[in-house]
Amino acid sequence: MAASAQRNIDFYSVVLGQRVVKVTVNFDDPGTYHLYYGDQVGSPGTVMTHFPWQGAARGVRGNGEAVATAYSIAAASLDYWRERLSEHGFVPTESQRFGHTVLSAEDPDGTLIELIVDERAAGLDVPVPWPASPVPAQHALQGFHSVTLWVGSVKPIADLLVGQLGFEAAGQDTDPEGTRYRFRGAGAGVGLYVDAVERPGKPRGRFGAGSIHHVALRTVDDSEQAEYMATLKQAGYQPTPVQDRQYFHSIYFREPNGVLFEIATDAPGFDADESVDELGSHLMLPEWFESKRAAIEQRVPRVVNHEYNVEIGGGTSGRPVQAVSPAQSSESTAPRQPTQARDADTLRAGRPLSEARVALILVHGRGGSAADILQLTDVWNQSVYAYLAPQAPSLAGQGPSWYPQSFLAPVEQNQPALGTALGRLEALMAELAAAGIPAERVMLGGFSQGACLVSEFVARHPQRYGGVFVYSGGLITLEHSGNLAGTPIFMGNSDQDAHVPLERFQQSAALFTALGGKVDARVYPGMPHTIVQEELDAVGRMMQALAFESV
């Protein structure tokens, strides 16, 4: 992730000499650029991509994420790159790794970039030289060498890479952070190595500018990807459905340390919508976003691709480059100011409110925690949202709970705790409204007792919401009036849930429908009191639809 689109382009295209092969948007967040850098044609094994969240706070490296990306360079280029990075204001450091010299520097957002002397990359068909690169051809980066992960335990990484994906263990080396283990992919070419540094007991990373969101592994085509998906499912991983990314098809999954992986196909390729000669010259949108082009062009900041010297985004796409004063620039460097005091007992993730267009309030169940339910956001992988998860207080003898009795008990038996809990949700909605995120761009959802609380809140405050989901829950009371104005509502429940009787679930679905909600209520025979993948997928689609509507 980057904090400035233009600064990101200037570093990767001008300093590193990588071609901007595609300027598009994050398909899960069409108000944010997705910038692709690579060789002349965007060959697999050369492409690094960035999501610029303008003004985003700096992330913190930690376990459960990739922390560095390494390119190969020729031995004769080491002095050139040491001098080039220094001339542009970056401070490279030098070290040895597996017998090879490593030159390391941070990009402007703190992403660690490494250049590794490795002559084995010479003579390959990839990378394809970019004739207009500001870096002389003899010193050009030679594609990816490796990626470095920080993990609490290397065993899950070995189980995944060696046990499921065809890698082989390739040795270990000392590292300032712990022991570095290397794994080598099958075949020849670039980008063959994954390094994992084992750091037991060290804290997890905090996502922000400079963080690496995920690591992509290539596969030849859809059929091979389907084989990997089947293998991963059988091994207990939970890969997402195939995502159409226009230039490739992707699945995503996390390994037990928390590292997010993508498996992406080589095809269709970056020339699917632009000729090779014009790659990176326009803001390219998938067909399903074309109807929103004018709004998207206005929302994304003005940037310049120096290869063509034309402006992109900011409402001026295609215009020859003109000087822009700081007062006119669409990129603000001013620090974000909080909109109002925040609830200290609410955990937050995703976009800061000052940057978000949509938000999701997540409510945990009895005995659960805000941290637990926030983990669902890893499954949905929707970076456009601000996530808010209130933490229930601990009630005597029960642990965290929103109210003491069953949701079917007389209301007075759950007071005053129930009223306080509903007030917490009302305060969060007010905070979002004050930050410029109205109810129609807010989703609310929960599991079990949290789902009951969300249901009751929505029924007592009927209006158009961005969406509602009820995982194994139902309404606390059944006498409500008002208009939900077509709010999409997903509800999922077992036919034999000991906590949420099927009859109450069906009554709740019927009442939401009568209030004008667009209800999708699903009953899962024999399902225990839990959340299943079909429910997660349904809510993921709701979230994507709302993100698109919000542009």
UniProtKB/TrEMBL annotation:
<dbReference type="InterPro" id="IPR004360">
    <property type="entry name" value="Glyas_Fos-R_dOase_dom"/>
</dbReference>
<feature type="compositionally biased region" description="Polar residues">
    <location>
        <begin position="325"/>
        <end position="340"/>
    </location>
</feature>
<dbReference type="Pfam" id="PF00903">
    <property type="entry name" value="Glyoxalase"/>
</dbReference>
<dbReference type="GO" id="GO:0016787">
    <property type="term" value="F:hydrolase activity"/>
</dbReference>
<feature type="domain" description="VOC">
    <location>
        <begin position="1"/>
        <end position="118"/>
    </location>
</feature>
<dbReference type="InterPro" id="IPR029068">
    <property type="entry name" value="Glyas_Bleomycin-R_OHBP_Dase"/>
</dbReference>
<feature type="domain" description="VOC">
    <location>
        <begin position="143"/>
        <end position="266"/>
    </location>
</feature>
<dbReference type="InterPro" id="IPR003140">
    <property type="entry name" value="PLipase/COase/thioEstase"/>
</dbReference>
<dbReference type="InterPro" id="IPR029058">
    <property type="entry name" value="AB_hydrolase_fold"/>
</dbReference>
<dbReference type="Pfam" id="PF02230">
    <property type="entry name" value="Abhydrolase_2"/>
</dbReference>
<dbReference type="InterPro" id="IPR052537">
    <property type="entry name" value="Extradiol_RC_dioxygenase"/>
</dbReference>
<feature type="region of interest" description="Disordered">
    <location>
        <begin position="311"/>
        <end position="348"/>
    </location>
</feature>
<protein>
    <recommendedName>
        <fullName>VOC domain-containing protein</fullName>
    </recommendedName>
</protein>
<dbReference type="InterPro" id="IPR037523">
    <property type="entry name" value="VOC_core"/>
</dbReference>
